[in-house]
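Slides due. Your pick:
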Amino acid sequence: MSTGDLTAGELRIFIAIEREGSFSAAAQKLGLTQSAVSHAVNTAERKVGAVLFQRGRGGAQPTKAGKSVLGHARRILRLMDTMKQEARTASVGETTGTVRVAAFRGAAFHLLPSVLGRFGRRYPRITVDVSVVRETEAGIPGQVRAGLADLGVATLFSPIEDLVSKELFVDPYVLAYPAGHPDPRSLPTIHWNERTSAETEGWCARQAWLPASDIRVEDDSVAMSMVGHGLGTAVVPRLTFAGASPKVAMQTLGSDAPSRSVGYVITPEMHHSAAVRALIAELRAQPLSQSGGQRRRA
């Protein structure tokens, strides 16, 4: 095993192989020869003491060790970019750079537009790239952990190992129903696929008025559209209702109604980025009337 450190060039080669799917395609993308790419990977594997890619006729796929190294590689390269951005900021006295945000659909549609509007006016030289990520499997924390996003806006269920997570507001669930219907709880329920807490699942299981339904959709916006067409009701977070059609009305669910915690997720190292800290400050300053939620009492 070699004791040398991995180089930035080797890290970029790893990422290119994963993205392009083969050594040859990565070499072409980077303007290198295939033998140079193979040599770099072989050298790196000796340094870390593990096989990073499985090679075959179908291309190259990262091993379990390779996936771990790739996550660190993206974060290290991103930190190097941040270092250069911070140096320029210190030199010119104006915060610059790019912040990559991963957010669930409701936050991207109903929370971020007003936040980014104010942020852009305050920091015109910071670019924000937003991607919408489903909250399934690794979800938004997985994007942050893998170095694919600098900041995640996510539903928080519990402390997230190796990441920093902070609550922004509590988002209560409400009943969305066709506007003008005299007895919404008599209607079928439109279910949508959502990762929920055990408390929310328990609350729903105790509600005898929530009937079974053969309408199940993937997205809360689709559920809201169906509610607007009179097909039934849907239990949704209040933030989802922020963009509702006039054909959809809202009913609160009582003092024991379930809620979800909406917050941000970030790696410890990116928490020191001036651009990321500035965006977090803007998120925390978001008026609750616009987010649809409430702060937790101390």
